Amino acid sequence: MFYGYLHPQVTCTKHIFEKYVAFQYQCTNTIEEQILEDVSVVMDLIEGEDCFAQIASVELKSMPLGTSGSTFVAFQRDEVHLFFFASLVTFTICHVLAERIQFRQIRLHPQVHFQRS
Residue 76, Cα to own-chain centre: how many angstroms? Predict the structure, then answer.
């Protein structure tokens, strides 16, 4: 059974290049008896929306218990000093029970704030 307080561990690393910013979401499945599928991140600009355009995203197809993987979102950018993103981590949970498998789609809402130094 899924309980609301169970979730995978997710960390975000930003990679900043002259014309691009890539966000790497490192995910680890820590949920007992569940496989996470179609893990992806949807990002929404809160501040700096005139300076960014999303150009790519890469999802994780499957993440069994105890495994890690990365999903990515990349943006082309103009010069900007301050930007804020809201992130939505989505995945489908496969409950692996002795006799059946159940599916439930889950959404996590971490907020990502970055300030260029």
Answer: 18
Q: What is the pLDDT of residues 50-93, one digit of tens each?
A: 788 899 999 999 988 889 999 999 999 887 667 788 888 888 88
**What is the gyration radius of the CA atoms in the chain, in angstroms?**
16
Degrees to nearest 5, angle at CA 24 with 48 and 31: 120
Cβ neighbours around 85 below 10 Å, total: 24
pTM: 0.74
Structure tokens at 102: 């159940």
* Domains annotated on the chain, with CATH: 9-115 (2.60.40.1480)
Measured between alpha carbons, how far is 47 from 109 in angstroms, rounded to an integer?
17
What tokens were used for 25? Answer: 């979401």
What would the pLDDT profile of 35-57 be if each residue is shown by its tens digit? 888 999 999 888 777 788 899 99
Exposed (0-12), middle (13-18) or buried (19+): which is 9, by Cβ within 10 Å?
exposed
Q: 5: exposed, middle or buried (C-beta count within 10 Å: 0-12, 13-18, 19+)?
A: exposed
